[in-house]
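On clarity, I found the account of how folds are encoded harder to follow than it need be. For illustration, here is how one protein appears when written out as sequence plus structure tokens.
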Amino acid sequence: MLRRIFLVIILCALFALGFACGGHPAASYQPPPPITTPYQPTPQILSSASDTVINGGSFVSLTPVYIPAGNTLTLTWASDGSLQGYIFTETQFHNFKFAGIPSGYEAYNAGSSGTTISAYVRNGDTYYAVVSNSYLFSSPVKLYQATLTEQ
């Protein structure tokens, strides 16, 4: 009997202590602080082209730019048909111009509206962004906008 009384006293004391320390544990819950995202610099527009028709077997090259190592280049384009996009180093671009087909590139993708490619710059170099309608007998494609950015 003495054990039961002692147990009841302990439980009452714990219950009273719970109210003295802020009540029910769920009532004193504080949500964690909001998650903050790391700093992301605003992309800087380096070059662009717009409202251009690209015939089959032709390409548009955006203004070449020198980029130091450690940055990321992104080429985004929108068109009324499928085009190929490339990011080339200077040597790769000269090989592409000479042969008409890429022998190497830093980034590539094909598509139409909202297509994006990115390349991390490992070595400082002059970079070229190219939007191409590679196939000689393909229909002309309207390039609405192409933009090269650095981040």
